[in-house]
Each structure stands twice: as structure tokens, then as C-alpha cells.
Amino acid sequence: MNSRKMLQVITIVLFLSGLGALSLADSIFASNREDRATAEQQKPKNPCNPCAKKAQNPCNPCAKKAQNPCNPCAGKQASGEAYAPATSYNKWTKINSKPLLSQPHGNMFVTTFANPTAQAAIKGKAGNFPVGSILVKESHMNSNGKPGDKGTIFAMEKTADGWLWVTTDPTGHVTGKGDSQQMQMCSQCHVSAQMDSAFLRKK
Q1: What is the rounded CA–CA span in Å between residue 48 and residue 184?
Q2: Are 175 and 77 in contact (CB under 8 A)?
Q3: Per-residue pLDDT tens over the stretch 160-179
């Protein structure tokens, strides 16, 4: 074989080797893409994550319709148990003088009340609330940007075992209490609050 033919053969071999390398690289990249896609599909999807970082509602991402089971503010069947603070809080100190719109609480207008024990801790700028502190959040439906009908009542009561979370209907009858899934949503969102799990917005 003369040198010219030898050069042609070498050129062809190198060209075919280059195609093979490109094909192998493309195969590797395709495999990696498939692996990433599979990993994305396998990630747990939880649209009801109570603390999902959603701009519209960080602690209640599913609360667009009252019937949605993910909505912690949806109308829940009340039990026969009455929660006394839910009917006596209107004599306590208001934390916010007028209702504030709260997206984490079903996009409703809320007003927070503190019993004397909790108010003393707030006034004294204590780091934690003492046992016996109770904070009650009264809510009203959002009626075209204004407070409408009375809705869920939210309460947190400091006990020797920590915070007891309670929700009631407007009459003070319990709809959620203790360690239920709904109450866990409350505690998980409040853990980042500025004072012992309490968000105290004053306006």
C-alpha cells in the first residue's frame, strides 16, 4: 500500500472513530438526562405541604376552595366540645387594633387577642410565654377586601407540655385540637415565629 492510500485509510479510521466518540458521548448525555428526569419524577410531591414556600400563601397552598381537604380553614364538622376561651376572648387585650388580612389563615381577616397572662409576657418582652398564656385569633371571611362573616377561631394555649393548638367554629365548638394533622400544620408554620411560636403583628 502506497503512502497516499495509507493516508486515506488513516483519515477514514479517524473519522469513524470521531463519529463513534460523538455517538458514545450523546448516549451518555441522554442517559444522564433520563436519570435526572426519573429523579425529578420520584421526588415526593405534596401540594398540601403546610409550609410550602408559595408566595401567595406560605402556610396554606391549597386554600382556594373551602371544600379542599388541604385547607386548614375549611368548614370542618364541629364536635360537641366547647372551648371556653373561644367564647370569652373578646374581653382580652387586642394585639392588632383592626383586622389584618392573613393568607396563612385562609386569606381571611384576623384579630388576635391575648389573655392577661400572655399580655403580661408580651408587655414585659419575655422570651417565652408562661404556662397559662392563651392567644386567640378571631377570623372573618374576606368580603371584597373587607371583613365579612365570622369564621374559624384559632387558639394556642401554653400548657406544661407546650402549646396546645385548637380551632373552633364561630360558636366556640372544637373542630380541631391536639395532635391532629391540621394542628400539626399550625405548629409547623408557627415554629419560625418571633416570640415562642407566636406571630404578633400590631397595626
Answers
A1: 12
A2: yes
A3: 999 999 999 999 999 999 87
